[in-house]
Amino acid sequence: MKDRLKRFFRSSQSLSGSSTQPSASVDHLQTKPYDTVLPQDKSSALSIPPTTDSWNEALQKLSIEDQEKVPETEIQKEDNDFQDTWRVLENEKRGNILDWISSTPYEDHHRLAKTGRTPDTGRWIFEQRNFQDWRSSKDSMIFWLHGIPGAGKTKLVSRVVDGLLDNAEEQKVVYFYCDRNEELRRKPKEIIRSFVKQLSITHDQTMIHDGLIKIYDEKRQRGFLSRGLSLEESEDLLAQLIPTYSRAILVLDALDESEESSREGLVSYFNRLVEQLCNLKIFVSSRRDENREKQLEMKVSVTIEERDNRHDIERFVKQRISEDEKFRASPIPAELQTDIVRVLLEKSRGVCKIATRALQLVLCSTNPLTADILVFFVCQDPGTETSVAPYVDVQFILDSCPNLLIMDPCHTCRLSHLSVYEHFEKHWSIGMCHGNAAKVCLTHMLGANNRQSPRYSATAESVFTYATHHWFEHIRKYECYIGNAGGNNIDPQLSLLVEKFLGSVEESGPAYRSWCTRCEQMPHIPIEDLKPFSNPMLAICRLGFHHVPLTWWQSKSIDPEQTNEASNSLLALAILSENKITTQRLLSLRADINRPLDGLLGSGSALGAAASTGNQEIIKLLLSKGAKVNQKHTGGIYGNALVASIASPNGRKATQLLLDSGAEINQELNCGIFGSALAAAATRGGPKATRLLLQAGANVNQGLTSGNYGSALAAAASTHGCQDTVKLLLSSGADVNQVLTWGHYGSALAAAACGDPGNIKLLLDAGADVNQTLVSGLYGSALAAAAYSQRYSVKSLLDAGADVNQKLTTGLYGSALATAVAKQSADKKIVQLLLDAGADVNQKLASGLYGSVLEAARARTRPELYEMLLDAGAKKSQGSVKNIASKADKYESQKE
Questions:
Q1: Residue 106 pLDDT > 90
Q2: What is the pLDDT of residues 603-612, one digit of tens each?
Q3: DSSP 8-state code for residue 773
Q4: CATH (residue range 673-769)
Q5: What SS3 class is residue 440?
Q6: Can you tell me the distance from the alpha carbon of 560 to that of 565, in angstroms, rounded to the nearest whole number?
Q7: In sequence order, what are the residues at sequence separation of 6 or more whose Cβ sits closer than 8 angstroms to the Cβ of residue 850?
Q8: Number of Cβ atoms within 10 Å of the Cβ of 303
Q9: d(CA 864, CA 859)
Q10: 94-305: what fold?
Q11: Start-end of H helices in 508-614
């Protein structure tokens, strides 16, 4: 204490300009006890004349007031960096320093927060065991008060602040009220500054901590190059000021209204404070938030429930009745007062529930909700497993959510503005919203045949349709939000409902099978992947569930090698759903990562399934677990994983990853519709994907032995809108007359004739032989391919010199004219175009299914084409139509 008074003496001396020594003052303290009472006006100490007696008097006054206001144990605390020294300053400088630290009028905000608070409300929190434990514990800890919007959190916080301030002699209480409508009150820097300001002054506001004075003076000497304390400086000061008190309590209201971008940093700072400092209590209020729950390392929390506020609401209603009675001629009977309180309590709870359910459902709905669906959903209690008939109408719901929820002329309900969505998205757990929606959907489908009333029946079908389409989407998003929040606390009721709906691991239940049957005509649901419907594990994996049902994943009866009717395994289905957790679980059950998937519509392999989705995380997971990047498929439409990636719009995100992992770019494939990665790129990926593979070393003239095309150039030429890809391949050295030994076409020009006519000119300009003899394909020549496909291509090739009577050695028809008339829905204009070009009706065919054009006509086409052929010369050499018919019949009988 002597050292402290010496410092005070010197500082006071410097302020007054006196050269008086402090020794007399010290001697005085040695002879006078602390309890010598002098006038308690600290400010007068600054105007004392510089005499020894005056200094003695000032020091004596200081010692007495310090003894009363500041515990000696606090004054004696000292460390190397921050001494526990308090100083008296003149009002002006003290005010300047405090305003420089923070200008936030925190006391005004507290008065505003408690304005209108009904007397004696909110005291229930002091009776909470959690609150009492937090308050009495010697450990530093965080208390989190949370509740839905409008639950009265700020009023309750103001009650807590008042209660703590009533015992201010035992502790230092500082507080701050965040407000999203005031920018300063949202910033963590201003929150911490305000706490520093409140901790840096004594209870009576007359003394200020010496550490703040030093920092202020240093900033002033440098000309206040910064306007105030930085966030880092404020955090350091707060951490140093807290230990100067025997106990410090920080109260922060509406954490969820603080600046979102820096909120996590503020929470982390609070966590560090309670870890590093002793006897610190932090009280935080906010809306319920699973992410915040995970971040806040608190030992206790309290949710504001309806039962907690019940007595507060009752007191409020009674107070208003009492106030209104002043203006009534006669008092309200006690019995009527009781009824009024009871009805208002019941209605207030109902309105709150209805509004909350409505807003939550609209917030998480995947499609706009019609009024009847919304009405049904808000009347259901997600906590029960029974559906009830609607008991409110849409207008009641809209009145419960004024200015938040609107209904358009089509009776579709939506939030009134994007800002409303953004607000509730930030302050509600979207995962919980999806979980509740899923529970209502499942409950309704499980009891779909239970029609309780005509009103129920009127909306049942529309709700049933919504549930059919969206129940699994709600569950998937629920699990996603739970996972992102870092938790595994799955709602057990939701898990049980999913299990009831699906049946058992071994055999699906009737509700699930009924749902599958209804979904067969719904294109957005991958229903083919769920066949046979008797196996619900197919749905678990393909729909992307990884937590529910909880018991199933622990069951020893799950066979990871099960497949669906398309030969896709559970592992492939989980990968197609892009569910990494489910994939990991199946791998942990020792699912064969390189198992061939032989089905025609299968993915070929697990890696092929992952490559088709483009999910790089899952691809990396599979490769790390031993998936073979160059495994050749024995079934499916791709042939290998690289082709699966190239051929799928989403898959191309992972093409480079597969190449970097060693994928063989020119691998000869055994199955699939493409034949090579470059052919897949040419027909599905466009110039960008094609260029990527060419730069990576793809062989532009690779002859293919599987697939539909025979070469990459033929693949591009057959595809509409691929002129740029054709040009790229030609400029990269593609042989325009390459003889193809595999595929539907036999040449690139024949492929163009069947596909995009715009590619014919590109190929002809590049030197394509219009009469090239083909050794493979369905048609035998480019003209025959055009005759089967489109008139414009026929004309283009004839104009380029195509031989209309070229004898074909391969294909199904034998000549261009036979091809034209053999088509099931023959184009008379193409037939006429060929006849006008000199096509020989009587030509003997050396290949194909028919011996002559007339036989082809008799077997395949309409009778009216006979007249066209007869007029072209058939009558002279082969007689009447009757003879033609009889010869054709004889030919058919010989084939049999």
A1: yes
A2: 899 999 999 9
A3: P
A4: 1.25.40.20
A5: helix
A6: 15
A7: 813, 814, 818, 822, 856, 859, 891
A8: 12
A9: 13
A10: Rossmann fold (3.40.50)
A11: 510-518, 537-542, 570-576, 580-588, 606-613
Predicted confidence at residue 22, as pLDDT, reads 31
CA distance 419 to 399: 19
Which residues touch 745 (CB under 8 Å, ≥6 apart)?
A: 709, 710, 714, 718, 751, 754, 774, 777, 778, 779, 785
Alpha-carbon distance 582 to 335, whole Å?
A: 61
Domain with CATH 3.40.50.300 in the chain: 94-305
Average pLDDT over residues 372-382: 86
Please give the average per-residue pLDDT across 263-276, as a whole number: 91
Higher pLDDT, 832 or 312: 832
Residue written as token pair 């909470």: 128
Phi then psi for residue 141, to 5 deg, are: -160, 165
Q: DSSP assignment of 41-103, as one string?
A: -GGGGGG--SSHHHHHHHHHHHHHHHHHHS-HHHHT-B-SS-B--EEE--HHHHHHHHHHH--
Tokens (6 digits) for 95: 């005010």
Topology of domain 788-896 in CATH is 1.25.40
Looking at residue 618, its pLDDT comes to 95
Distance (Å, rounded) from C-alpha 540 to C-alpha 557? 14
Q: For residue range 116-164, what is the model confidence (pLDDT) as tens digits?
A: 777 777 788 888 888 888 988 888 989 988 876 566 788 899 999 999 9
609 closest CA partner among 649, 580, 646, 568:
568
Quote the pTM value: 0.59
What mean pLDDT comes out for the span 525-547? 89
Tokens encoding 47: 């105007």
Identify the top-confidence range among 59-73, 477-491, 556-570, 759-773: 759-773
Where does CATH 1.25.40.20 sit in the chain? 673-769, 788-896
Pairing of strands 86-88, 207-209: antiparallel
Phi, psi of 756 (to 5 degrees): -95, 110
Helix%, strand%, coil% for the chain, nearest 5? 55, 5, 40
- Per-residue pLDDT, 723: 92
Exposed (0-12), middle (13-18) or buried (19+): which is 641, by Cβ within 10 Å? buried
Extract long-range pairs of 21-29: CB within 8 Å, 24+ residues apart. Answer: 22/55, 24/52, 24/55, 24/56, 25/52, 25/55, 25/56, 25/59, 26/2, 28/56, 28/59, 28/60, 29/1, 29/2, 29/5, 29/59, 29/60, 29/63
Token code pair at residue 258: 């603080």
pLDDT of residue 823: 83
Task: Return the ∠ at Cα 821 (arms to 820 and 826), rounded to 5°.
Answer: 80
Beta bridge partners, 415, equal 405
Residue bearing the bigger pLDDT, 184 or 87 = 184
252: enclosing H helix or E strand = strand 248-253
Helices (H), 77-187: 91-101, 106-114, 129-136, 153-165
